[in-house]
Design goal:
This protein is an alpha/beta fold. The chain is built from 14 helices and 19 strands. The protein has four domains: 141 residues, Methylthiotransferase, N-terminal domain (Rossmann fold), CATH 3.40.50.12160; 113 residues, Transcription Regulator spoIIAA (2-Layer Sandwich), CATH 3.30.750.210; 100 residues, 2-Layer Sandwich (Transcription Regulator spoIIAA), CATH 3.30.750.200; 59 residues, Nucleic acid-binding proteins (OB fold (Dihydrolipoamide Acetyltransferase, E2P)). Strand 4, helix 5 and strand 5 form a beta-alpha-beta unit. The site of iron/sulfur cluster has 10 residues, from helix 7.
């Protein structure tokens, strides 16, 4: 781990002078998870300070940054395809600077491959080196052919001001990295060990966001439940939630992800005790088979997981749970798969995010024998989705007749004159309404349920 990056003020001043005279446009494209999207907003924050404006059209950009994801090899191949296609853009406009950021760059062989095979890329910046971007840009503008910084910095660029995509929903990373080493996952290898941001920095960021009118704060971390374990002050994630809940204002707090092995009773009690914390928990089970969970190195059994679920339902039997599932993990038997079907029937999730296992080189699972055919994995996936569809359709009916508080998000793509939003319970709600309500909380009386959303009408006197 390298110490903190130096103050950038002088470099930014020099860059601003170099780039003055006409508007400079940057195109920043983020792939993958919400943490990466949040990093993309930080990259934009750094570029804005230098004087860049932003475009969604790569053809008119003076600077392109691809903020990459490494979770699946197919995602990496796709990025290499995009980088390859950008050679043309560079030929047409030699002054164009192309850079690569994000999780892919944390693998030194990838940075090497980019340097060796893609001369159109002049800049590579690692996930914790976003603050080094001005220095690298300056080097390129001074004629260096390839400038890279993929070191792991202590300050991991957490305090960079973000250019946020939404004026009412904000992601706030509270920690970076992961210590868990699930056998299928590359994240600890590319994002490093857990580092928590200081609580006072998080609280002051959220206070600022609420003052600026943000209505939804999404706290992000690979495993938020181990927040604070690496800090000198003793602060746990539930304590942080309580401090954020005390901030004055009308807003909702969400968080992800929550590792089931660390989802404590204190966390669950805190969710119920804090009025601003959403009544929803994303609890990634990954498999219903304790044997598969052991081979995944998840460090909980299906029984232990169900104890947590039972505790939640003993407080509120209608509580909203969602999960992640991997179908076809190496050597998953029919019995293992059946255990997964059993657990989703038992828990009755409101939604599942399921993936067919795909080998990720550099992980332990990639070395495991995998006799299950792709055809069989596909069949299992279809079965899983069919079972979940039935559960969701039935389960969503519990909301009919209730009033849900919804943050109106967008106009509905499915029904003209309708808006769409997420309820406190993280359920998609569609309702008739004027677009001027987007970004506001509305009370919606639920009249119908589908397998992916509920519909309703705005409560009289609400808008
Ligand atoms: S908890 Fe497991 S799946 Fe999640 S980021 Fe860490 S290693 Fe990956």
């Amino acid at each position: 781990m390298v110490a903190i990056l130096n103050d950038n003020t002088l470099i930014i001043n020099e860059l601003s002078e170099l780039l003055s005279g006409g508007q400079k446009l940057a195109y920043v494209r983020s792939f993958g998870c919400q943490l990466n999207v949040s990093d993309g907003e930080k990259i934009k924050g750094v570029l804005k300070k230098i004087g860049y404006s932003f475009t969604d059209n790569e053809n008119e950009a003076d600077l392109i940054i691809l903020n990459t994801c490494a979770v699946r090899e197919s995602a990496e191949d796709r990025v290499f395809g995009i980088i390859g296609s950008m050679k043309k853009l560079k030929e047409l406009k030699p002054s164009l600077i192309i850079g690569v950021a994000g999780c892919m760059t944390a693998q030194s062989h990838i940075a090497e491959k980019i340097k060796r095979s893609y001369p159109q890329v002049e800049l590579v910046v690692g996930t914790s080196a976003i603050n080094a971007l001005p220095k690298l840009l300056l080097e390129v503008l001074h004629g260096r052919k390839f400038a890279a910084d993929i070191a792991e910095y202590d300050d991991f660029s957490a305090e960079v001001e973000q250019v946020r995509e939404s004026p009412f929903k904000a992601s706030v990373p509270i920690m970076f990295g992961c210590n868990n080493f699930c056998t299928y996952c590359i994240v600890p290898h590319v994002r490093g060990r857990e580092r928590s941001r200081r609580p006072e920095d998080i609280i002051s960021e959220v206070e600022g966001l609420v003052r600026s009118g943000y209505k939804e704060i999404m706290l992000l971390g690979q495993n938020v439940n181990s927040y604070g374990n690496d800090l000198d002050d003793t602060i746990s994630f539930p304590q942080l939630l309580r401090s954020l809940n005390d901030i004055e204002g009308d807003f909702i707090i969400r968080f992800m992800s929550s590792h089931p092995k660390d989802a404590s009773r204190e966390l669950i009690d805190t969710i119920f005790a804090c009025d601003k914390v959403a009544k929803h928990l994303h609890l990634p089970v990954q498999s219903g088979s304790s044997d598969v969970l052991r081979r995944m190195n998840r460090r909980y059994t299906a029984e232990k997981y169900l104890e947590t679920v039972d505790y939640i339902y003993s407080i509120d039997p209608d509580f909203s749970l969602t999960t992640d599932l991997i179908v076809g993990f190496p050597d998953e038997t029919n019995e293992d798969f059946q255990a997964t079907l059993d657990i989703i029937k038992r828990v009755r999730y409101d939604n599942i995010y399921s993936f067919i296992y795909s080998k990720r080189s550099g992980t332990k699972a990639a070395e495991m024998p995998d006799p299950v055919t792709d055809e069989e994995k596909g069949l299992r996936m279809r079965k899983l989705l069919e079972v979940q569809r039935e559960i969701s359709t039935e389960h969503y009916k519990r909301f009919i007749g209730r009033t849900m508080r919804v943050l109106a998000d967008d106009v509905s793509k499915k029904k003209q004159g309708f808006l769409t939003g997420k309820s406190n319970e993280f359920i998609i709600v569609e309702f008739e309404g004027d677009p001027s309500l987007i970004g506001q909380f509305v009370d919606v009386e639920i009249t119908d349920a589908m397998n992916w959303a509920v519909t309703g009408r705005i409560k009289k006197g609400n808008a």
